[in-house]
Amino acid sequence: MIQLLYDRKVALEVCPTSNLQTGAVHGMGQHPLLDLYNLRLHVTLNTDDPSISDTTLTDEYVVSVAALGIEERQIFHMLRYSAEAAFIPPEERHWLFDAIRQGLAPYPGAVAEFDAL
Questions:
Q1: CA gap 64, 28 in Å, rounded
Q2: Whose C-alpha in 9, 15, 32, 41 is 20 to 30 A from the C-alpha of 3?
Q3: How confident is the model at residue 32 (pLDDT cuts 50, 70, 90)?
Q4: pTM beyond 0.90, yes or no
């Protein structure tokens, strides 16, 4: 299954807080996000339902860094995977990529990491 996900570049929407709340993982230390990333799968960070999970996308990034050991460069890669998987018309994709690049511009090396994939 991993090979199929990799070959087809299937984006996996990962929601760490929701995964913990629903019992999909028994603790953040057991969450497979980093393992999935290290398998070179296209993982993206998401919130599931923010009103139910009481979380924001920013919270999910903080949890991923603090509790899961995700590195800054990996966050930029996950942003890239998210942009590539976005449900938008192809002609709008360049706008999304440009907007993300502008948001990342103040952070040294961020745009280069985003574009590295």
A1: 9
A2: 15
A3: very high
A4: yes
The length of the chain in residues reads: 117
Residue 39 near residue 7, CB atoms below 8 Å: no
d(CA 40, CA 31): 16
Q: What percent of the chain has pLDDT above 70?
A: 100
Q: Is 42 helix (H, G, I), strand (E, B) or coil?
A: strand
d(CA 89, CA 87): 7
Tell how many helices (H) and how many strands (E) occur in the chain.
8, 2
Name which of 41, 47, 77, 42 is nearest 59 in CA terms. 47
Residue 53 belongs to domain spanning: 2-115
Total domain count for the chain?
1
